[in-house]
Amino acid sequence: MSCTKKDEEVAEMRIEAYPRMEQRIGNPTPLAMGGFATTLLTLSLAMMGFRGVSVQTIFVGDLCFVACIGLLISAQWEMVKGNTFGYTVLSAFGLFYGGYGATLIPGFGIIEAYGGLTPEYYNALGFFVLIWAVLNIFFIIASLAFNFVYILIFITLELCLSLDAASYFALADGKQGTSVALLKAAGVFGFISSLLGYYCVAHYLCQDVLPFNVLMGDTSSFFRRQRAKRM
């Protein structure tokens, strides 16, 4: 049986009546940014020693559930939407938060494996954080093609991670005072990064439900040619 031109037109109309999948799903980024910012903010307050808090064990719930699971779930939907950058960043930091949370769980016996809070333990923890700072450099470069807020988030996060790693190395060397100063500086940059994360949450929620928006400082126009070539 052969299809007439009219039948083909009707078929096309039916196809167009159903939107593509990415047009029918919500934006997963606000949840991810909220989990990222909330967890980083609590850690940053502890790093700065607010109200005498320095032990971070209480934040295992945020690290392993809010951040780790929240970011990983959001990342899968970024992949469905075809957003490679979003999927990579959210998956990476979800796993980072989960991994860091695991180091704070006494039942895992990580500290005991090093014989307590020894220089070797602090050096190992410093390496753990430092290598994530190296990975974050690639995210900084990629964020240049998006907006100024993303750029600032990754730059301040880079400073937070680098200073945090340095504080652990200072502890390993027995420099307690230097370590405390570096940790507080790391907390300051983490605090700034978390506030920028909340700004992103406000941007995406306003974009979805309110008649106004908050600006992100779009930089994609500077990379339009490169993006067009990749497509």
Account of the protein in words:
The chain has 231 residues and is mainly α. The chain is built from ten helices and no strands. The chain has helices at residues 5-17, 21-24, 29-47, 60-80, 84-103, 110-113, 119-143, 148-172, 176-209, 224-230. Helix 3 packs antiparallel against helix 9 and helix 7 (119-143) packs antiparallel against helix 8 (148-172). The longest helix has 34 residues, at 176-209. The chain is globular and about 55 Å long. Residues 227-231 have low confidence and may be disordered.
Summary?
By secondary structure, this protein is mostly helical. It is 74% helix and 0% strand. The relative contact order is 0.12.
Distance between the termini: 38 Å
What class do helices, strands and sheet pairing give? mainly alpha
Largest sheet: none
Strand content: under 5%
Task: Give the C-alpha Rg.
Answer: 22 Å
> Count the strands?
0
Task: List the uncertain runs.
Answer: 227-231
Count every helix, treating DSSP H or I runs of 4 or more residues as helices: 10
Oligomer: single chain
Written as H for each helix and E for each strand, in order along the chain, the element string is HHHHHHHHHH
Classify the helix fraction into a percent range. over 70%
Shape by Cα distribution: globular
Question: What do the pLDDT scores average to?
Answer: 89
Relevant terms:
single chain; 231 residues; mainly alpha; disordered C terminus
